[in-house]
Amino acid sequence: MSLKNQHTTADFLSWKENKRVIKKLYDNGDYYYCLLFVIGTHFGLRISDIKTIKWDDLIRKERIVLYEQKTGKKKIIETPDKIKDFVLELYGYIRPSTNHIITQTTQAINRKLKRLKKKYDINIDNFSTHTFRKTFGRYYWEKNNYSERALIMLSEMFNHSSIATTKRYLGIKQEEFDNVYNEIAEAII
């Protein structure tokens, strides 16, 4: 049961699942949401910041420069050629009438994500625009062998006040607690 105005925490997708959904969206011609998944999970931005990005930022510039909506802090993101090429391809399919890449409201996007969850049988409980940012973080941490160094980098990228905040944000702290309970259970039974 969900209560109105109750805060739910978004979950992350495994990278394999993320890639599967991106491919499904592309294959089914849902280029707009394919683009949203690619940008969201490759740059680790909040949806409010993704909405400030323009086509020119991604296609013609080496770096995206933006000021985070939540913090007001300047963020510079290098745009890899592989991403630029894919975005350019999607641009050709989408043929946008506006320079902003994402024009839908966050609420409309979240409703669509819930439909995509059912349509593509996405194995996730709490799926929202924040899932993209968490997927980015979890993948980077995993790709760097679950290192403390990766958590430090993510903490800075996410503008968190501490690594402990980043661990809570990515659900790592709960996993560590779960491991303690499982270790104790192994010793008892």
How would you describe this structure to a colleague?
This protein is mostly helical. The chain folds into two domains: 15-125, hpI Integrase, Chain A; 144-189. It has helices spanning 15-27, 31-43, 47-50, 55-59, 81-94, 106-119, 130-143, 148-157, 163-169, 172-188, and strands spanning 63-67, 74-78. Strands 1-2 form a two-stranded antiparallel sheet. Helix 1 (15-27) packs antiparallel against helix 2 (31-43), helix 2 packs antiparallel against helix 5 and helix 8 (148-157) packs across helix 9 (163-169). The longest helix has 17 residues, at 172-188. Mean pLDDT is 93; it is low at 1-6.
Structural features:
disordered N terminus; 5% strand; 2 strands; 2 domains; 189 residues; hpI Integrase, Chain A; two-stranded antiparallel sheet; mainly alpha
Set down the secondary structure blueprint.
Layout: H1 15-27, H2 31-43, H3 47-50, H4 55-59, E1 63-67, E2 74-78, H5 81-94, H6 106-119, H7 130-143, H8 148-157, H9 163-169, H10 172-188
Antiparallel strand pairs: 1-2
Helix pairs in contact: 1-2, 2-5, 2-7, 8-9
Q: What is the residue-mean pLDDT, rounded to a whole number?
A: 93
**Major β-sheet profile:** 2 strands, antiparallel
Give me the side-by-side strand order of the main sheet. 1-2
Please indicate the percent range of residues in DSSP E strands (runs of 2 or more): 5-15%
Radius of gyration: 18 Å
Return the structural class. Answer: mainly alpha
CATH superfamily name of the largest domain? Intergrase catalytic core
- Supply the number of structural domains: 2
Separation, N- and C-terminal Cα atoms: 35 Å
CATH level-3 fold name of the largest domain: hpI Integrase, Chain A
Helix proportion range: 55-70%
Q: What is the CATH top level name of the largest domain?
A: Mainly Alpha
Strand segment count: 2
- Which architecture of the largest domain would the CATH scheme give at its second level? Orthogonal Bundle
Point out poorly predicted stretches: 1-6
Count the DSSP helices: 10
Q: Describe the global form.
A: globular
**Could you spell the SSE succession in H and E letters?**
HHHHEEHHHHHH
